[in-house]
Structures are given as structure tokens and as C-alpha cells.
């Protein structure tokens, strides 16, 4: 019912704002039809983008061709063998020795942690900045390469299409169903949790409904996982925030507070379609995606992160400590890819923003020459923004299904 209600509200306003949903209308056939229409609209946008992308690949003179391009797929479309291979590779990087010296980040214990530590150290320079989309594209790509090069994975980085779980986040067959062929499910249920409260500078607090878990993940491949780093800035239900450097060794279980309400409010097909179709310049697109400050919306980026929630999922700095991070950012990258390909001429290369979070403190504009470096995640992998704007040039050769 909540999905239907929130869609009803978003249809009225034409955008996925976080306005409280007050309607108690039952799920009428008309609204069910609208849900399907938005899914169909999204799939049409994705198909159009794919056609443009395929044509530009055919015309490209680079080394990426139809013969060597790899295809990233939605989690639920993977075969059991493919799911199992991905999970095994993630467990492998979690059991491989770290490269980061403990003199720099004392808490790192694995190659997986090298990525978490890099994200912690750079968080204030890669969110609400000019680098946000390209940095996370590069970060996710290098995680995919890590799985391949160091753990023998032969598949590609899967993604989580949030719209598919907006009516039930832990739905069977989807990535959070808790089975052995999932990314593990919810945390143990903790009752009577208050809203999560998100603060951003002096903007009004955004209240997010608590999820249906809250404790340690108890089933699936990551039930015994050790989260080693963080927290840095972890919002707790009720308004407190747990803070720290996040860099010390702090082994604990993986906690999640998966909730359909946040999924349905912010990361449904309506909000994805709205983002892609009504945000026509890069500033609007990337800012609405992350939650336009003061709008009350956390965007699809926040929507995915806070659907996962928990510790470390709700901590912006430490969020890659939950392995589902990379499926969420696969979808973030795909949505950018769709948006770019719908108007390649004007959307391939534009950049907006600076090198600091909401330009605080003030810093230089990000440009195509700005260099990104992901530290000990991949040594010597510094690269200019200009190399990261297309998925079929520079270091990349991948597409989305
Ligand atoms: Cu991030």
C-alpha cells in the first residue's frame, strides 16, 4: 500500500519529493497501472540509451569493440552459477591481504578494506563535487577489476535496479532475499526504532522511516563478515550520530536496516524516470540524484544507500563496507550512462562543481583535467576526468543490459 500511496503523491507533484505521504488510498487498479507504466517508461529510456550506445560503439575507432565489450547485468537476471561466482569473488577479496600500510590506516585487514579506507579518506572530496559521478565510476570499475584480476572472477559487476525492489526490498529472487545466492538479507529485527534523522548543514532535517531490520545480518554469504573500519559519521535511529576517524580496527558484524518504505519513497521507477527526464543539465542531474539540499529529497543515490541503511550502510564515509555498495553504485553509474546516451552530444563531457562537498571550503572547479586517485585501492591508478566520461573509451569497455 505504501508503494502505491507514495507513487500517488509523486504523480501529483511530478517529482519524487520527500513530502510526507498522507494518503491512505488503497492500491487501486489505476495506480497499479501507473507503477507498470513507470517501469515501462524506464525500460524504454534504457533501451533508447542502449541503441545510441551501440551505434556509437560501432562508429568508434578505439580499442573497445563489439567483440571485446563486456555487459553488466541486473542481479536478478544472473544465473545461479553467475551469482555464486560473484559472491565467491567478493569473499575472496575480503580474505586477501591489504595493501594499505597500517601506519596510514590502522584498521585495514583486507583488499576489500583498501577500498573502504580510500572512500573514507576521500568522502568530502567526492560527494556533492564535480567528481562525484566519474569518481564512483572509476572506483566501481576498479573493484570489478579487483574481483577479476586478484580473485579469478570472469563475470562483470552486477547492479541493483532499485525499482525492482520498491514494493518489497527483501523479495525472493532479488539481491537481498537472504538466501545463499543473495548479497545476504536484512539485519536481525529490532523493534520500536525511531526515524533516522539526516542533517546537512543548516538545511531542515530529513526524517527517514526506520527499516525492518537493524541488527546483524544473519543469513546468506555475508552473515559472518567482519566490518573492520568506521564509523565516521553514522546516524542512529532517534537522532544521535556516532562519530570517529573510522580508520582504527573496529571489527563487528555487518548490520542492515533494509526497509521497503525508503526504497518506495526515493528509489522507485517514478523517481528514476523523473531524474532522467526532467534534469537536463549536469548540475541538476547530479545534485537531484544525491538529494537537492533543502528539498527534503535524498535522491535515488540516498534512496539506495538508506534502503540498505544500518552500520556501515548509513555512514556516508564507510558505506562501501557493505558489499551491496557496489551493486548500488553499478545502478548509479547505469543511470548516468542512460542519461548521457539520451543526448550524447551535450551530456558526454560536461562537468559541474568543485573539489569540495557543496564547495565547502571553497575550492577550484573540477575540469576534464582534474586528476582522480583512489589511493591504495589500486596503486598508480591516478587518471584524468577526461578518461572517465565514456564507458567505451579511456580504460573502459563496458555496457549495460
Ligand atoms: Cu561514495
From TrEMBL:
It comes from the Eukaryota. The keyword Oxidoreductase applies. Residues 127-144, 322-333 form the Tyrosinase copper-binding domain. Residues 1-18 form the signal peptide. Keywords: Metal-binding, Monooxygenase, Oxidoreductase, Signal. The keyword Oxidoreductase applies. GO terms for molecular function: metal ion binding; monooxygenase activity. This is Related to monophenol monooxygenase (Tyrosinase).
Amino acid at each position: 500500500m505504501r508503494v502505491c500511496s507514495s507513487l500517488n503523491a509523486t504523480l501529483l507533484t511530478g517529482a519524487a519529493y520527500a513530502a510526507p505521504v498522507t494518503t491512505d488510498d488503497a492500491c487501486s487498479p489505476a495506480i497499479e497501472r501507473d507503477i507498470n507504466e513507470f517501469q515501462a517508461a524506464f525500460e524504454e529510456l534504457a533501451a533508447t540509451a542502449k541503441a545510441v550506445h551501440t551505434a556509437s560503439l560501432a562508429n568508434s575507432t578505439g580499442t573497445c569493440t563489439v567483440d571485446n565489450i563486456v555487459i553488466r547485468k541486473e542481479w536478478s537476471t544472473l544465473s545461479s552459477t553467475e551469482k555464486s561466482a560473484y559472491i565467491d569473488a567478493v569473499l575472496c577479496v575480503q580474505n586477501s591481504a591489504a595493501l594499505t600500510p597500517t601506519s596510514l590506516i590502522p584498521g585495514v585487514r583486507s583488499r576489500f578494506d583498501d577500498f573502504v579506507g580510500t572512500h573514507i579518506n576521500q568522502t568530502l572530496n567526492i560527494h556533492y563535487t564535480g567528481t562525484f559521478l566519474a569518481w564512483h565510476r572509476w572506483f566501481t570499475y576498479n573493484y570489478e577489476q579487483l574481483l577479476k584480476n586478484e580473485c579469478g572472477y570472469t563475470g562483470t559487476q552486477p547492479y541493483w535496479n532499485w525499482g525492482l525492489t520498491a514494493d518489497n526490498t527483501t523479495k525472493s529472487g532479488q539481491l537481498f532475499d537472504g538466501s545463499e545466492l543473495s548479497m545476504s538479507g536484512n539485519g536481525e529485527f529490532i523493534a520500536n526504532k525511531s526515524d533516522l534523522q539526516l542533517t546537512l548543514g543548516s538545511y531542515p532535517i530529513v526524517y527517514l522511516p526506520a527499516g525492518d531490520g537493524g541488527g546483524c545480518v544473519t543469513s546468506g554469504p555475508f552473515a559472518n563478515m567482519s566490518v573492520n573500519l568506521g564509523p565516521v559519521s553514522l546516524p542512529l535511529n532517534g537522532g544521535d550520530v556516532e562519530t570517529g576517524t573510522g580508520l582504527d580496527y573496529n571489527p563487528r558484524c555487518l548490520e542492515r536496516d533494509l526497509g521497503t518504505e525508503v526504497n518506495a519513497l526515493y528509489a522507485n521507477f517514478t523517481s528514476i524516470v523523473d531524474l532522467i527526464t526532467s534534469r537536463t543539465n549536469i548540475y541538476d542531474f547530479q545534485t537531484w540524484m544525491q538529494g537537492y539540499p533543502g528539498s527534503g529529497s535524498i535522491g535515488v543515490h540516498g534512496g539506495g544507500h538508506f534502503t540498505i541503511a544500518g552500520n556501515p550502510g548509513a555512514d556516508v564515509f564507510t558505506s562501501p563496507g557493505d558489499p551491496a555498495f557496489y551493486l548500488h553504485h553499478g545502478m548509479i553509474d547505469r543511470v548516468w550512462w542512460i542519461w548521457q546516451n539520451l543526448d550524447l552530444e551535450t551530456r558526454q563531457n560536461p562537468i559541474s562543481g568543485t573539489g569540495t562537498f557543496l564547495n565547502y571550503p571553497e575550492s577550484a572547479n573540477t575540469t576534464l583535467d582534474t586528476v582522480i586517485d583512489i589511493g591504495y585501492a589500486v596503486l598508480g591508478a591516478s587518471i584524468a576526468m577526461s578518461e572517465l566520461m565514456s564507458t567505451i573509451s579511456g580504460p573502459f569497455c563496458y555496457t549495460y543490459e
